[in-house]
Every structure is written in structure tokens, then in C-alpha cells.
Amino acid sequence: MSPDRYLRSFDVIGLLARHKDGLRLTEIKEALALPVSSVHNMLQTMVTAEVLNVTPELRYSIGPRVVGIALSTLASLDVRTLARRHLQDLARAIGDDVYLGLNLGQRVLYADRCSGTQRVSLDIRLGEPLYLHGTATGKLFAAYDARLASQALASPLKKLTAHTITDPRQLSAEFERIRSRGYAKSEDEAVDGVVGYAIPIRQADGTLAAAIHVSVIGQRATRSHERRLIDAARDCAAQVERSLGHVSPDRFPAGVA
Question: 111 and 53 in one domain?
Fold first, then answer.
């Protein structure tokens, strides 16, 4: 398989992963700006290999082989397994949706979600890349990773809402504030009417292993709720960190060396 064809197959998988009801050949062709003939041949090969499924109505969707690989990959991420119960407890305690954020290569994404008790919740897809300048979790990882920070500051800063930071100097200052206070906040910066918080989870060597992200909708985002949320999320992070072998010095009781 040629390098271009190999890369196009991943484009197809990424596209179909965002459309659970599948797409027709013409829709795939138009979305990826590819010739019909090459797309048709590639899709047939991917169906034969069980990378894709195709219905009698000729709608293509993600196949069992991709699903199996995705599940195996997630299962191999120990922090996700270790954090799951604690994130569920946090979601029940504060009532808001709780996510686990991870940095994989040059991408930051949500790898798990625990629904809160509120009737209204967000439909944020797992596995999709997060904006490093507009989301709380994206900003948190960039603030603590010079490589990601450089990537964010060098890229065009897309205006997601009226409150999105689009000035590199302001974004750099925001990264500094995040490092100073120890958590990130996105206030109507990614989605109007939604405040996001991201709290770091550190591994044994002190580097970021993951992030706890909490999405708060509308009038719930009060100062008192924010204080309770951050305290609860930090306690949750500390429990996961202990499982990863990291104990922050400032969490020791007084008098303990």
C-alpha cells in the first residue's frame, strides 16, 4: 500500500468514527475530496479486512477490527482503569459530568466519561482532539508541556466563542496562571454557557499522567460550586495519584517528613 493510500485509510476511519450511522461513498468522497474510483476501491478493501462494515443500503461504518483495537488500546491505559471508580464517585458527589483527559502524542483527548446527576449534559465525543487554547484540559496539558505549548502558540488560534483566547501573548500568560494555581479553567471559551475545569493527575515521577475534566452548565457555575468542585476533584486526583505511586509533599499531615 502506498503511503498516501495508507494515510487516506486513517482519514476514512477518523471520518466514520464521527458518524455512528455511517456514510455513503459519495459523502465520504466529498468530505475527503478524493476521486470516486480510489475511494470505492479503498472502501472495498477495508470491508474485506473487517476494518469497515457496509449495510445493504451501502452505508459504511466502523468495523469490528477497529472497535477491537480501540477497546484494547483503552484497556491498556492503566490510568483509565485506575481512575474509573474515583471518577464515578466524583460525578455522583458534585452532580456534573466528569471526563478523563489524556495526552497521546501531539493530541489531547477525553478517554473516559462519567455522567453526573444533572438532567442536562453535554454530548462530548471521546477520542476527538481537544483545542489546546480553548478547552480547560487542552490548556492544562499545554501549560505543563513545553512541546504542546509551542504547538498551541504557533498555530492559528481559532475563535470558538466570543470568549476564546486568540492572542498568543494572552494564551502564554494563561499557561503561566494555570501553573501558578494548579488547575485550568475555560469559561465559555469552547462552548457558550459551559464552564470547564481541569485538574492534573500526576504519575510517580511528578509528570502529568492525565487530567480530570469537569463540565458545568449554566447557572450551576457559581463561586461556591466552583470551590466545592475543585476541592472534590483534587481529592479525586490524589486518590488516583496514590495508585500511580505519586504522593505530593503538601498532602502529608503536619509533622510528617
Answer: no
What do you get for the CA distance between the two ends of the chain, in Å?
59
Q: What is the dihedral of CA 8, 9, 13, 15, to 10 degrees?
A: 20
Whether residues 64 and 90 share a domain: the answer is no
**Do the Cβ atoms of 200 and 237 come closer than 8 Å?**
yes
Can you count the helices (H) and strands (E) in the chain?
9, 7
190 and 134 Cβ atoms separated by less than 8 Å: yes
Look at the chain and report how many structural domains it folds into.
2
pTM (2 decimals)?
Answer: 0.68
Kind of pairing between the strands at 107-114 and 97-104:
antiparallel
pLDDT digits (tens, 9 = 90+) for 58-70: 999 998 888 777 7
Mean pLDDT across the stretch 226-246?
Answer: 90
Structure confidence at residue 2 (pLDDT): 59
